[in-house]
Amino acid sequence: MAAVEGLQEDGHADAAQAPARDAGEIVLKLDNIELGFGGVKAINNVSFEVRKGEIRAIIGPNGAGKSSMLNCINGFYKPQKGSISFNGKTMSAMDPHFAASNGIARTFQNIALFRGMSTLDNLMTGRVLKMRRGFLWQALHWGPAQREEIKHRAFVETIIDFLEIQSIRRTPVGRLPYGLQKRVELGRALAMEPSILLLDEPMAGMNVEEKQDMSRFILDVNEEFGTTIVLIEHDMGVVMDISDRVVVLDYGRKIADGTPDEVRRNQDVIDAYLGVPHED
Amino acid sequence: MFYREAGIFKTSYAADQALFRIPFDRIFVISVVLFAALVIPVIGNEYWLGSILIPTLIMAIATIGLNILLGYCGQLSLGTGAFMAAGAFMGYKIATAFPWMPIWAVVILGGICAAMIGVAFGLPSLRIKGFYLAVTTLAAQFFLLWLFQKVPWFVNYSISGVPTAPPREMFGYLVTGAEASVEARYLFILAFTVILALIAANLVRGRIGRTWMAIRDMDIAAELIGIKPLPTKLSAFAVSSFYCGVAGVLWAFCYINTVEATAFDIFRSFTVLFMVIIGGLGSILGCFLGAFFIFLLPIFLNSAPGWVGLEVPTELISHVEFMVFGALIVFFLIVEPHGLARLWAITKEKLRLWPFPY
Fold this sequence. Notes:
heterodimer, A: alpha/beta, Rossmann fold, six-stranded mixed sheet, 11 helices, B: mainly alpha, 14 helices, 1% strand
């Protein structure tokens, strides 16, 4: 649990030394993002960056613009102002296909699995962009097309083993319990071999054990595959434990950015999110 | 027991991804195909082959087509009849313009023409979903039939407007037109049915099928995974219309032996839709179950009173047929939206546990 140790050391470290671990290069940078729906400003002039290999949390009260932020990152929403830099390319808005083909994968707050398909097919769908064989080969399902299927199946099986979902391989995901669906959704994102993984409330609605499992998977993904993780989560205990740096949003504005300990001590955050202490 | 699912261990992914994962299924399907190819032409009479099996198999092809679009890709279409008509008329034009062309190539080219027309009418699907898309495909239904009826070029300026299908040979046997023997026509259609069903089964279990199902189940998530909605939907329209077009050519050339637009009216579209719903959305097996069910049910309802010695007026029977038909559609929509194929799957699941309750 390098992340947790790093975090504890950091409690005594100089506050200026922002990242908890060795700071990687900046892989994703958002500058002055503004996004509005009609009269509502969902995101108001927010800038932050994500460094390679870190676990970056975005927290904030309900409606603070966290999910909108993720939606901007993978191109589902187009911000009205600001720019996004990713892979050395600066653009005013991300294109979903560009994001997917350049290794940005995500999970959703409300599970967005393909309910009619089996676990295996859901994970295989995550490999779609990596499969190349044309229509006629697939119609025959023979030769190169079959070899390609087997190659990707083998990769997907490593993820199935990693997430310990072997027994539900052939089960339609619509029939799975909530916690397993969340896990399959993580698997589908991992099947894309992402360089950045966006997790939108991966632990919402889970019990303590499921949360522990999920935290373990997230840390393992981060450590074993070196995947950069951007995470939205409401469980403060989890966020403070596993993340390297935290962005706090409130009413679409950024009110704090730093290590969990810095954020925990920030008066704005305490006021806005963790609650104002009462005198009595 | 002769049907076993347990104790079959796969040692390679190739074996695990086989079309029929249980040996019994494979043997069963192969023997059904062999039976249909070798035994039925010998024992079948003119009526069974010509009036039941031939139209059922052709409709099964069209049903696979619509099932790919509706059951796998989730795009509702009421233009099936029009795409069949497109196949039939373009097949007729090709067959008469190039008399030397082998008949199988005519059928495939007719299907490809229908596919292109299907893609054109599938373009609105990027913006329009569900029932609204159904209405735009309805436009295809009315527009295309109107076009084929009003423009004499499509029927080579035939005086009657209803040209007969040109006779064509394959392996030295006549397979199209009124003079062709019913066995030859049947085998010709059976070959197309088997090959097309196999191709459809391969497509839906591969990458393309997964992108279709992803669009059907959760189009937003699919887009964020990197699946482009428009090409995916259009590929489903293309493949679907290709199957409908092939079914249309066969219907005109091998079944009714004339090329006429009225054979592909809105009722044809609805019949195919019923077959998909009753057979099972998202199941190739269901296409055959649905087609056979809808073709055999009227025959059963017609003959059943006779079997038990009841004298029922024909008028009444045809009314009862409509009522039972409608009631069954409602029944399936309420009880089992996934149709006969799902009922079959549930039966298998229940029998796996039987006689234990869990």
